[in-house]
């Protein structure tokens, strides 16, 4: 789920900052609650923090240099 959300955000940002819509806080909380288990309860927290997220950031740097400018 997180990887797909990151990909969608990257695609939206490549369309320009004006193309990104931000949801209000209650909707964000509702969507987050629909995910079922949290990273901590599923035992994936360390894997995500130490391996997956850094790998996604490296890929983002490689494929979209300057995205964070």
Notes on the structure:
This protein is mainly alpha-helical. The chain has one domain (2-63). The protein has four helices and no strands. It has helices spanning 2-14, 25-33, 39-42, 45-63. The mean pLDDT is 76.
Task: State the main characteristics.
mainly alpha; 65% helix; 69 residues
Distance between the ends: 26 Å
Compute the gyration radius: what is it? 14 Å
| Overall average residue pLDDT | 76
Indicate the multimeric state: single chain
- Domains (count): 1
Strand proportion, as a percent range, falls in: under 5%
* Major β-sheet profile: none
Helix content bin: 55-70%
Residue runs with pLDDT of under 50 for 5 or more positions: none
Large-scale geometry? flat
Number of strands: 0
Helix-and-strand structural type? mainly alpha
Order of helices and strands: HHHH
- How many helices in DSSP terms? 4
Please describe the topology of this protein.
Elements: H1 2-14, H2 25-33, H3 39-42, H4 45-63
What is the gist of this entry?
The protein has about 70 residues and is mostly helical. The chain contains four helices and no strands. It has one domain (about 1-65).
């Amino acid at each position: 789920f997180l990887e797909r959300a990151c990909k969608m955000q990257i695609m939206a940002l490549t369309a320009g900052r004006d193309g990104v819509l931000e949801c209000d806080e209650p909707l964000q909380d509702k969507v987050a609650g629909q995910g079922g288990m949290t990273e901590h309860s599923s035992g994936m927290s360390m894997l995500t923090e130490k391996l997956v997220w850094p790998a996604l950031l490296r890929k983002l740097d490689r494929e979209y240099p300057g995205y964070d400018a």
